[in-house]
Each structure stands twice: as structure tokens, then as C-alpha cells.
Specification:
single chain, alpha+beta, Aminopeptidase, about 30% strand
């Protein structure tokens, strides 16, 4: 990986623009996740405010990023680290927003974006290490992340508690992202069952999925880790994405 270097989104406007394009391309399929309350209220502002915490893996030959890692500084009590809550990603964003003006002591990981063309090359693990290294450089007590187990999209009706118990022949996590974090030194804590919660009118989900929902029930959609819960009577669809807590202590 000698042709790559870690840079910060804050380094230049061109790099910030390229990072945004890469993120959008990587997450376009999961755009409905942008509609959690925490994302709507705080996410973009946090990325701008803490642009020096947004890490880009740049190809030195082209000057263009091949991966982006988003993370934010936050303030956590020691007992919080030991008792991380069911809200994962949303909680990290809200806690980071509430930590403004306080002494930051923990790094919260939010996303690693790697386009399909660059996957399978160990780049994700490089970005995990880069976030952990940043937490050490800042003198924080640790780095925590609500990890999205992406392969669970193929098993939407399996509970997250059962899913994390799945192992491969070598006894490692079945899910590749969980394996990557474990291999990078992360300590598995527990699932966070309501990491990202999106509640929108039924019409929102019909527009997004190009499906009509005439009966209440659970519906699987492409890319989602669990089904949407459609309540026709109350005109609401609820998606509660489960993630998995990993902690890296410094």
C-alpha cells in the first residue's frame, strides 16, 4: 500500500469535494439512512466542524481518495464505555453534538466508505487502523464504533443476537466487517439493536423502494439489514438498523 497516504478532509477544498462524492457513491443504495433524526440534525455540521477528523486514503498517483473514514470527537464517562446503549450510530452523533465545548476523550467512528472497485484489498482495515491511530494521537482513552454488519442484508429476518454468533470454519465472525474489526484489535462488546432509526410516512418508503404497501407488516428491502415495519393504520414505516459495538482502548 505504498502508493497510498492518509490525509484529512480539511487539507483542501478539492479533497473535501472528492471525499463527498466518494461517500455518496458508496452509500447511494442506503440513502434512506440519511433520514435518522440524528443525521438530519447534526451529521453534516459535525463533518464540517471536525473536518480534521475525516480521514481520506489518497492514491498518490492520482491525488484522488479511494476510501474515506468519518469519525468525531466526543466526551464519554468511563461507565458509558462499559455500558454502551442500544442506540449506536445515532447515539454517537448526538453525543458528539452534545460534547461541544467539553474536553473530548473518546473517538466515535461513524462510517468507512470504500467504493466497490476498491473492495477486497484490505483498505477497510487500513481505515480502521487510521481511526484508532488518530484516537491515540489526540490522547483519547479510546475509540468506539457501531459497526454495520453489511452481509446481514442477505439475512434480514435473522436477529442480530443470533447473527453475531455465526462463525466461519476458523471460528471467526461470519460477517466480513465484524471480522475486520476483530482482526484490527477491536473488542466485541454487544449488538446495538437500534443503531439508526428512520421513521417516515408510508409514502416515503413506497417512493424509496418502488413498492406499494397496502397491508401492515414486515417488508425486506434491498440493502437493509432488517425489514421495514409498515403500519398502514398509522401511516408510518419504521426501520431500526442493528449495528455491533466494538471498542478499542488506548
Amino acid at each position: 500500500m505504498s502508493n497510498f497516504v492518509i490525509r484529512m478532509r480539511a487539507d483542501s477544498k478539492d479533497l473535501a469535494k472528492a471525499a463527498s462524492v466518494l461517500e455518496q457513491a458508496s452509500w447511494n443504495q442506503f440513502g434512506f439512512l440519511n433520514f435518522t433524526k440524528a443525521h438530519h440534525d447534526h451529521y453534516d455540521a459535525l463533518l464540517e466542524e471536525f473536518a480534521d477528523y475525516q480521514l481520506c486514503l489518497v492514491d498518490t498517483d492520482t491525488g484522488y481518495p479511494v476510501a474515506v473514514a468519518n469519525c468525531v470527537p466526543m466526551t464519554c464517562a468511563d461507565e458509558t464505555i462499559e455500558n454502551l446503549p442500544p442506540p449506536g450510530w445515532d447515539w454517537v452523533v448526538e453525543t458528539a453534538a452534545a460534547s461541544r465545548g467539553k474536553v473530548h476523550d473518546t473517538l466515535g467512528g461513524l462510517a468507512i466508505s470504500v467504493p466497490n472497485v476498491h473492495r477486497g484489498r484490505g483498505i477497510g482495515r487500513i481505515m480502521i487502523k487510521a481511526m484508532h491511530d488518530l484516537s491515540k494521537k489526540k490522547g483519547f482513552k479510546g475509540f468506539l464504533a457501531p459497526v454495520r454488519p453489511s452481509a446481514k442484508a442477505g439475512h434480514p429476518f435473522v436477529s442480530i443476537d443470533d447473527y453475531v454468533e455465526w462463525k466461519d470454519e476458523g471460528g471467526r465472525f461470519y460477517d466480513p466487517w465484524l471480522r475486520s474489526h476483530a482482526a484490527a484489535g477491536g473488542v466485541f462488546i454487544k449488538p446495538c439493536g437500534e443503531s439508526m432509526v428512520v421513521e417516515e410516512p408510508v409514502a416515503f418508503w413506497e417512493t424509496w423502494t418502488q413498492q406499494y404497501y397496502r397491508q401492515s407488516g414486515e417488508y425486506a428491502i434491498d440493502g437493509a439489514l432488517v425489514p421495514i415495519e409498515i403500519d398502514v393504520e398509522h401511516n408510518v414505516g419504521r426501520y431500526a438498523e442493528p449495528n455491533v459495538w466494538f471498542v478499542y482502548k488506548n
